Amino acid sequence: MLVSTIKNPDRVLHGDLMTSPSSQAGRHGMSCLASEHDPEGCRELKQMRVSFGDDIAGSQFQALIPSFIIISDRRLISGLSFIFDDGRSVDAGYVVAGHKDFATRHHSESIWVICSPAGFETITLGEYPQEIVDRHSESRIAMARLPCQGLKGIVLGLNAMQIVRIYFDRNEQDSLDNILWTLPYPVSAPSLCNDDVRALCELQRASFTPASTVCIEPAKGQLIAIKVHSPLGPGAGISGIQFVYGSGLTTGCGTADDTATLAFFLDEAEQLTQVTVYKIGSFVHHLKFSTSHKRASGLLPQLTVPNTEIECVEYTSTDNQSITGFCCCFIEATKQLHCFGAIGEAIAISSKSTSLPPVDIPDDIISNHGIHRSHLLLPKKYRSVRASVNPTDSKYRNRGQVTGLIFRLSNDTRHPDLLGQWTGFGEICYLEEDEQILDLEVTRRKPRCRVPRPWFLQIQGITIVTNLRRITWDFQRSYIFAATTFKWICLYFVIKDRLNHQKSRVRAHYH
């Protein structure tokens, strides 16, 4: 029963009930509420407002004491007590009697807030709460640091037992200083355009949507590629991003599940100097990366929404510095990235409105499916070919399934050509000095279940034909797709042979 999960029932609700709760736009806030797309999680029943008054607001805090409630063996905050240096105290929310008797009192300039989708876990004054962070290291938590000065009052969103949302009333514009971040908490504030800062604050007022950072970590090895994960399709956006190291390790944010995996390769002397973000509102549609070697990736993902105005924001490193990481907000319920920015010592931000030209997709491709087109010039002199394989079973792909090929040139092994997707390293084949690739063959198989479009086939194997031999990467496992959960992620490969001016096209559909 619900009653059996609640301890310390001797609680008093403090604050003025807001009969017409508003969005509290303009106040900095953070929320543990579930998003509208999430059927589970915290819900708000009422809002209570507590004003500190002009005579108290100028004072300093001596203590901020939470009242806790035990819900399903988890200790969550139900109320807050603010004690000022003149001895007065103000209570807000469900406060337990007598809990202030043993409070530790000291002056501090910062309030640390730790919360999760279950509720607010800890609110404390003082230095970075490392011990508390370590205690919650296995949980999905987020953290914010707020200044104590200028706090005029507080508005709490409550359900029947606990605090689920907090608004801090102060004369201050939205800024990155007050943002809720997943761990690790950023050492310095990333660079993010003002529109995205405001959008991020609005997202965090509405639901539990902490921002994340992902940084290049030299200790994991040499950075060799940046992966972008996308479900493809017009306006599909980006669901995740990863740094890939020569050691095989990766770091990233977002999700790679059941998406196309696109890649931009770098060599050991190359640094990331610019990231271009194409977005509508805060929703990120495409990313483009540029390096210190004057190279740039194409749009990732490729498929644009034609005749649509889109904002182009460039984050450029200055003073001979480089971009060392990214920040973004990943909305888990919709698997979409918002509010994308850069991390570095010196970052310049510029913005303009533009429109992207439509991608040249053949007429026989159904327009409402995602397309990513890669191409390969067969007459090039390649040193090696490596299969890209899916490392684990996923909803739409099987473990060991071939998803693409990585070609390395004899005179430039640092910038490989990728045909298809790069989901993981497979077997590598080195070519002889006098060996030349002549053709590429793809074998396909029909799913065992009936699908609406019979020409959608799944890759079974890829064969490289050279003047000396045939090299085959084959997916041998048998599998069955359930018609009720079938979803298509399509890649369109274009293979050009400039020697005989012939063009052969191979459709490859990955799941």
UniProtKB/TrEMBL annotation:
The chain crosses the membrane at residues 478-495. Keywords: Membrane, Transmembrane, Transmembrane helix. Residues 14-35 are annotated as: Disordered. This is Uncharacterized protein. The lineage of its organism: Eukaryota, Fungi, Dikarya, Ascomycota, Pezizomycotina.
